[in-house]
Design goal:
By secondary structure, this protein is of the alpha+beta class. Helices cover 24% and strands 10% of the residues. It has 2 helices and 2 strands; from the N terminus they run ββαα.
Protein backbone atom coordinates (compact mmCIF):
# COMPACT_ATOMS: atom_id res chain seq x y z
CA UNK A 1 0.00 0.00 0.00
CA UNK A 2 1.38 3.41 -0.95
CA UNK A 3 0.55 4.91 2.46
CA UNK A 4 2.95 2.45 4.11
CA UNK A 5 5.93 3.33 1.92
CA UNK A 6 8.86 5.63 2.68
CA UNK A 7 8.80 8.50 0.19
CA UNK A 8 11.65 10.31 -1.51
CA UNK A 9 10.37 13.75 -2.44
CA UNK A 10 11.61 16.85 -4.24
CA UNK A 11 13.06 19.83 -2.47
CA UNK A 12 13.69 23.16 -4.12
CA UNK A 13 12.60 26.78 -4.46
CA UNK A 14 8.88 27.44 -3.96
CA UNK A 15 8.42 28.47 -7.59
CA UNK A 16 9.91 25.20 -8.83
CA UNK A 17 7.49 22.29 -9.37
CA UNK A 18 8.21 19.28 -7.16
CA UNK A 19 6.80 15.80 -6.87
CA UNK A 20 5.91 14.80 -3.34
CA UNK A 21 4.26 11.66 -2.02
CA UNK A 22 1.12 10.26 -3.61
CA UNK A 23 -1.71 12.82 -3.26
CA UNK A 24 -4.27 12.01 -0.60
CA UNK A 25 -1.99 10.10 1.77
CA UNK A 26 -2.83 11.43 5.22
CA UNK A 27 0.56 11.33 6.91
CA UNK A 28 3.18 10.20 4.42
CA UNK A 29 6.49 8.95 5.75
CA UNK A 30 9.10 11.20 4.10
CA UNK A 31 12.49 9.50 4.17
CA UNK A 32 14.46 11.98 2.06
CA UNK A 33 13.93 15.32 0.35
CA UNK A 34 16.42 15.95 -2.45
CA UNK A 35 16.98 18.62 -5.07
CA UNK A 36 17.56 16.56 -8.21
CA UNK A 37 16.34 13.47 -10.03
CA UNK A 38 19.74 11.73 -10.01
CA UNK A 39 19.76 11.78 -6.21
CA UNK A 40 16.16 10.58 -6.09
CA UNK A 41 16.83 7.71 -8.45
CA UNK A 42 19.99 6.80 -6.51
CA UNK A 43 18.06 6.61 -3.23
CA UNK A 44 15.35 4.51 -4.89
CA UNK A 45 17.97 2.19 -6.43
CA UNK A 46 19.51 1.79 -2.96
CA UNK A 47 16.13 0.63 -1.63
CA UNK A 48 15.63 3.65 0.64
CA UNK A 49 12.16 4.56 -0.59
CA UNK A 50 9.90 5.20 -3.54
CA UNK A 51 9.19 8.36 -5.53
CA UNK A 52 6.68 9.75 -8.00
CA UNK A 53 7.94 10.45 -11.49
CA UNK A 54 5.97 12.26 -14.20
CA UNK A 55 5.02 9.90 -17.01
CA UNK A 56 6.80 12.10 -19.52
CA UNK A 57 10.08 11.33 -17.70
CA UNK A 58 9.66 7.55 -17.79
CA UNK A 59 12.40 7.11 -20.38
CA UNK A 60 14.90 8.88 -18.07
CA UNK A 61 14.45 6.35 -15.25
CA UNK A 62 17.71 4.36 -14.91
CA UNK A 63 17.67 0.60 -15.54
CA UNK A 64 18.35 -0.17 -11.88
CA UNK A 65 15.13 1.58 -10.88
CA UNK A 66 11.84 -0.18 -11.57
CA UNK A 67 9.19 1.95 -13.25
CA UNK A 68 5.61 1.08 -12.24
CA UNK A 69 2.67 3.07 -13.54
CA UNK A 70 0.21 3.56 -10.67
CA UNK A 71 -3.43 4.50 -10.91
CA UNK A 72 -5.30 6.23 -8.11
CA UNK A 73 -7.18 3.43 -6.29
CA UNK A 74 -10.04 5.82 -5.58
CA UNK A 75 -10.46 6.30 -9.31
CA UNK A 76 -10.06 10.05 -9.17
CA UNK A 77 -8.02 11.71 -11.83
CA UNK A 78 -5.28 14.18 -11.13
CA UNK A 79 -4.77 17.35 -13.03
CA UNK A 80 -1.88 18.85 -14.89
CA UNK A 81 -1.63 22.51 -15.64
CA UNK A 82 0.51 23.87 -18.43
CA UNK A 83 1.21 27.58 -18.46
CA UNK A 84 2.09 29.42 -21.67
CA UNK A 85 2.10 32.98 -22.91
CA UNK A 86 -1.13 34.28 -24.42
CA UNK A 87 -1.30 33.62 -27.29
CA UNK A 88 0.99 30.60 -27.10
CA UNK A 89 3.85 30.38 -29.57
CA UNK A 90 3.67 27.58 -32.16
CA UNK A 91 6.26 25.62 -30.14
CA UNK A 92 4.28 26.05 -26.89
CA UNK A 93 1.05 24.99 -28.62
CA UNK A 94 2.79 21.88 -29.97
CA UNK A 95 4.09 21.06 -26.48
CA UNK A 96 0.61 21.42 -24.99
CA UNK A 97 -0.80 19.09 -27.66
CA UNK A 98 1.94 16.54 -26.85
CA UNK A 99 1.22 16.72 -23.12
CA UNK A 100 -2.50 16.19 -23.76
CA UNK A 101 -1.82 13.16 -25.96
CA UNK A 102 0.54 11.63 -23.37
CA UNK A 103 -1.86 12.35 -20.48
CA UNK A 104 -4.74 10.70 -22.39
CA UNK A 105 -2.53 7.65 -23.05
CA UNK A 106 -1.60 7.38 -19.37
CA UNK A 107 -5.20 7.28 -18.07
CA UNK A 108 -6.36 4.48 -20.34
Amino acid sequence: MLADETWIVGSGPLDEPQFGPWPGIDRPRIGHAVRNWAARFGLVAAGLGITRVPGLAAEAVPREVRWLPVRDPAGSSGSLQVVTAEPPSPAAAAMVRSVRVEAARMVR
